[in-house]
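Hey L., structure's done. Input below.
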Amino acid sequence: MKNFSLVLTAAIMASAFLAGPVLGADQGKAIYEKANCVGCHKWHGGGGGGYGGAALSLRDTRMDRDQLIEVVRCGRPGTRMPFHDRHSWSSEGCYGMNPKEAGVEQPPQAAEFLSPEEIVAVSDYVTANMKGKGKPDRADCVAFWGEEAKQCRSYK
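Output:
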């Protein structure tokens, strides 16, 4: 079942590349904001407390690109990490489970659904700008908020 889930994820993401344009880093950042990743993972991806509980750090994550795509698409069972693909928990489900098998462990639905292209773009944004980057610094702050942002004053 897990292999089926991975094959299904790969097929959906491949169709995203074939069906539409590949979105760039600027779009990935905009999608990170649109999908309210900032609400839990914060602008810097460091995680911490949010309305959904304590979000994991995207800066410390060991997930690879495909795993990030799957988590954005399917959410995380048993947590408040929502699913962003409106079709992810259809009869096929995610992680080798259908909605009935997931039961109360099924993740919540995101307030904002994303297209397959947007899911790939936000996952690529996290991979390129947060994953493995250590503590956020002034350059990270300026890259997110802009040179004159008051949020960046506390960084040297």
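The two ends are 50 Å apart (CA to CA). The chain has a mean pLDDT of 85.

-- N.
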